[in-house]
Amino acid sequence: MESSTRSPHHLPAAKSHLSAPLRSPKIAFLFLTNSPLHFAPLWERFFSPPPSSLYNIYIHADPFSPLPPLHGVFRDRLIPAKRTQRSSATLISAARRLLATAMIDDPANTYFALISQHCIPLRSFNYLHSFLFDLSRLSPDLEFPSYIEILDKESHLWDRYNARGRNSMPPEVHFDQFRVGSQFFVLARKHALMVIKDRKLWRKFKLPCINVQSCYPEEHYFPTMLSMQDPTGCSHYTLTRVNWTGTVNGHPHTYHPPEISPQLIHRLRESNSTYSYMFARKFSPDCLNPLMEMADSVILND
């Protein structure tokens, strides 16, 4: 069932220059949600004062869980959406729909950041933009890397691989090619294009799951596809910090107001990689007020 929400107001017809050169590069923020954007005020602060010429916003909202009216930078940013559900390929479809919309909408969209409704920024917009477009991070073929978690040593890898039934993935995906990782990522335009053009692996990963306890297609498809097509072009690390201590039914730890402090923000930024985390999840809606109280002094103060 298609949503009745409007597409971004300036969405043009499809262009042929989907892999556009770097010109006034923008970051496309892709919000994937099935509930209200509780942290919209914090993101509004994040997007101010940078000019809109540096970013675009796209929102895929489950039409079965309609959003209240959106204001400010989020106004008129809903894209046509379909229902999403765990243990199914619908979350892959939603992410692909967001990527395709952003690719077609603006050729200046150079990075594509998939964001959860439970996600908050850990740095200022200017810090993130400077980090992503640091020319020293260009690969030898003058391309920017993607930041997506790609793991091949996860303890339940075999169960996840067989979630659709034994022998359901070959010959397109053999077990030694199967990867897992975080659902949320920051993709360079080259890799976003690979995702929306892919048909071969998509036919496999959209198969219904038999073992739903091991079925997290959105955590499998993107790492596997990009690992198979361009492993050296991806960092293998995500920019979104998630606390998997005390996991409940496949969900990460959810932070609540008593845990919110400047020390928490500084700790969430820390990474084992050469760069820090830029986003974090998962936060309960009632964290908004304590987060807003330290937005300028801590979160957006680099």
From TrEMBL:
It comes from the Eukaryota. It is found in: Membrane. Keywords: Glycoprotein, Glycosyltransferase, Membrane, Transferase. One of its GO terms (molecular function) is glycosyltransferase activity. GO terms for cellular component: membrane. InterPro entries: BC10-like, Glyco_trans_14. It is a single-pass type II membrane protein. This is Core-2/I-branching beta-1,6-N-acetylglucosaminyltransferase family protein. It comes from Salvia splendens (Scarlet sage).
